[in-house]
Design a protein that fits this description.
Blueprint lengths: L4 E5 L4 E2 L2 E2 L4 E4 L8 E4 L5 E10 L11 H9 E10 L4 E9 L3 E10 L2 E7 L3 H9 L7 E2 L1
Parallel strand pairs: 1-5
Antiparallel strand pairs: 1-4, 2-3, 5-6, 6-7, 8-9, 9-10, 10-11
Length: 141
């Protein structure tokens, strides 16, 4: 278990009979700080930067959930902007789907651009690939 980062795919990847565009995946290949990343249509890895700001307001007495009330009144999340990671290397992303399936993809970045991706083989994915007759086409190169 532990922390992970979230990666949203805007890059068009079609495998296992579905389009994975706009799907959220988890990864442990980056900073593991619950960061927010996206792979753009042109293949760049972008990180969204946030800042936690302390507010100085009185506690709300109307909320029943004490933790929510304390956190909500004390802190505010502010989006600072987006940064091109200029990532170089392999990024492994994973997710569960359809209550039975598991997908694991590797995205290869060279000089900040996505140049290749492939499906990591595991039993569930292999069965699904066989079902969709994509065994030979699971690598995009």
């Amino acid at each position: 278990m532990g922390t992970y980062d979230v990666v949203k795919l805007e890059y068009p990847i079609k495998v296992l009979g579905r389009d994975w565009t706009d799907h959220l995946f988890q990864t442990k290949s980056l900073k593991n700080t619950l960061g927010d990343y996206r792979v753009t249509k042109d293949g760049k890895l972008i990180e969204t930067k946030y800042k936690l700001i302390t507010r100085h307001k009185k506690k709300s007495k109307t909320r029943k959930n004490k933790f929510y009330s304390k956190f909500h009144n004390k802190y505010q999340v502010k989006k600072l902007g987006e940064v091109d990671m200029l990532y170089h290397g392999d990024l492994e992303i994973h997710d569960f789907f359809d209550d039975e399936g598991y997908i694991s993809l590797t995205l290869r970045f060279t000089e900040g651009r996505l140049v290749r991706w492939w499906v990591n083989k595991n039993i569930t994915t292999y069965k699904k690939l066989k079902k969709y007759k994509e065994k030979e086409d699971y690598i995009n190169g």
